[in-house]
Specification:
Distance between the termini: 51 Å
Keywords: Membrane, Transmembrane, Transmembrane helix
CATH topology of the largest domain: Tetracycline Repressor, domain 2
Pfam family, one: UbiA
Order of helices and strands: HHHHHHHHHHHHHH
Number of helices: 14
GO molecular function: transferase activity, transferring alkyl or aryl (other than methyl) groups
Radius of gyration: 19 Å
CATH superfamily of the largest domain: UbiA prenyltransferase
Low-confidence stretches: none
Helix content: over 70%
Largest sheet: none
Protein name: Ubiquinone biosynthesis protein UbiA
Number of strands: 0
Membrane topology: Multi-pass membrane protein
Strand content: under 5%
Structural class: mainly alpha
């Protein structure tokens, strides 16, 4: 029985880490690293660095937003429900951030610096930029830099291709727009007025779908030798996911499916990138 508080705290920390996107971004980074030629050990080290960074971002979000989440009684936020204290989440975020810095620079100076900038950009979103018209910028920067963390860690380091960087940035911004859709009213009530809030629900939905589809099309159409039948099938799958996200966003605005669909589009894009090396 004495272990139960520890178990409950650990479970609450996992929920506060924004686990689905955290694991998705980590898996995408590892898969891309492997796809561009990183040995399994290096791909695993990339994954650990990215995981630490994503955990720090998720926990810092719940730490910084604790008062706002309590004000609107967010049932999906453990700090708001009292399942965990703000201090515990703050400590976890800081420890994860320190681990992220160490693990990032173990990849090398260049990939370490790039990844730390990407994570710092995400922290800047949590701390300030989410309430400004520039709320999209940290997503563009952080996701756009992520592929280069893997390519710069290779024995023959290089910056990721421009098309890959642009596609990743577009996926990041599209995911941002899709993720905010269910929370537009709660955010506005607590003073968070980013780009999606200024655009409104309809234009945000359209922009999210357009960005996600553009990113997927960019990946498929820039394949060496041109798009393959498999690539076109992948693009069709991405289009289906984007369309379903728009449908759900219009009819069930409280649902988080559009964000999950955005992760699905990203998975399709990463799959194509890995398949083409």
């Amino acid at each position: 029985m004495g272990d139960m508080p520890v178990v409950r705290t650990a479970a609450a920390l996992l929920r506060a880490s924004h686990l689905p996107p955290t694991l998705a971004v980590t898996a995408f980074a590892a898969a891309y690293a492997w796809g561009v030629g990183a040995p399994a050990g290096l791909a695993a080290r990339v994954a650990l660095a990215v995981l630490a960074g994503q955990l720090s971002v998720g926990w810092s979000n719940d730490w910084i937003d604790a008062a706002r989440d309590r004000a609107v009684a967010r049932p999906d936020k453990p700090v708001a429900t009292g399942a965990i204290t703000t201090g515990t989440v703050r400590a976890a975020a800081l420890v994860a951030a320190l681990a992220c810095v160490v693990l990032s620079f173990l990849l090398g100076t260049a990939p370490g610096a790039v990844h730390v900038v990407a994570v710092a950009s995400a922290w800047a979103y949590n701390a300030w930029l989410k309430s400004t018209p520039w709320s999209w910028a940290p997503y563009a920067l952080s996701f756009g830099l992520l592929p280069s963390v893997a390519t710069l860690a290779l024995d023959d380091p290089c910056v990721a291709p421009a098309t890959t960087t642009l596609a990743a940035a577009l996926l990041g911004v599209g995911a941002h727009l899709a993720n905010v859709l269910p929370d537009l009213e709660d955010d506005a009530a607590t003073g968070v007025v980013g780009l999606p809030h200024r655009l409104g629900r309809r234009r945000t939905t359209v922009a999210a779908v357009a960005l996600l589809l553009t990113a997927a099309a960019l990946v498929v159409l820039s394949m060496p030798g041109g798009p393959t039948p498999a690539g076109l099938v992948a693009l069709g799958a991405a289009a289906g996911l984007a369309a379903s996200a728009a449908w759900v966003a219009a009819r069930r605005p409280e649902r988080r499916y559009p964000f999950l669909a955005a992760i699905g589009v990203a998975a399709v894009a990463v799959g194509v990138l890995v398949a083409t090396g």
